[in-house]
Amino acid sequence: MIVDCAVYQAGKRRPGELRLGEAFEACQQDGAFCWLGLYEPGPEEFESMRREFNLHELAVEDAIKGHQRPKIELYDDTMLVVLKPVRYIDSEELIETGEIILFVNKAFVVSVRRREASALGEVRRKLDNRADLLAHGPGAVLYAIMDKVVDDYAPVADGLERDIEEIEEQVFSTDRKRTNPAERIFSLEREVLEYHRAVAPLVGPVGRLASGEFELARGELQSYFRDVHDHVLRNGERETAFRALLSSILQANLTQVQVRQNEDMRRVTAWVAIIAVPTMIAGIYGMNFEHMPELKWEFGYPAVLAVIALICIVLYLRFRAAGWLGEPEHDRRRALGRSIRARIDGRDPAPPHES
Questions:
Q1: pTM, full prediction
Q2: What is 255-344's CATH number, 3.40.50.920, 1.10.10.10, 3.30.565.10, 1.20.58.340?
Q3: What is the full DSSP assignment across 107-126?
């Protein structure tokens, strides 16, 4: 579907509508260029576009197949630019990836967009009011689209960062009834990987434009592409930090699970040991020996109960002091959590005391 087709000359858009069959001829005048915008075109529209602008068949084949990685390739005098716009659906913790394919020539720009991520209507409206940029020709359109795609990476990174912080709080929570966040961690790792596939491969192509390798990006536009390159690098650094942080959080979660399992086993073992004392003594008296002197003593029965209670109390206090029962083990887990969090933040504190 053709979204918009217009001719620009001397930084201004010519009035009136333009049909595809008239686009190439209209931009042949000196200083003029055509910008054709397509959204999810079909094979017939691709073929009409190829004939109208005399595009290389391999470039059109890439555009038809789609699912390309971000790149820049030169076919004769026309650049093929592939971009991966993304948006973050926070409620589902899901990254939606789109695709923008650009054919850029001195006389025209053809933008092919798939899916909803990074709509280009806003880019065209802003450029229509920037005669100073449009005066630089198709390179200005390429810059504006790239800038839009890269700027849209920042909200996605912010959404990922918020969810990672939530997981971090969940991992280090002291609530014993909390669920294991391992599944959520793995899910976010997949989304960060999807983000990586959009951002990381774009660093090289934008760097080539920023270095002035292509004539369309030289002159005053070069500084604009350097700014885009800087933003891409920053988003790439955030993505690398996200992957490292999720890996550390996953390890911390596994450590916390092991700590809780050890704590539960110690607690069970301690109570079994305490309960074994009255069980053992009751078993002895259950053998019905006739010549046990305390059976004929007036205070024999209370004395046996007192001994059982005393031994159980002593065992309980010893297990509690050793951290097998009650708060000392809880405090130790919190200390372990603080230690792991500090390591994630880049510090290197002393390891927590092991009881």
A1: 0.72
A2: 1.20.58.340
A3: SEEEEEEESSSS-SHHHHHH
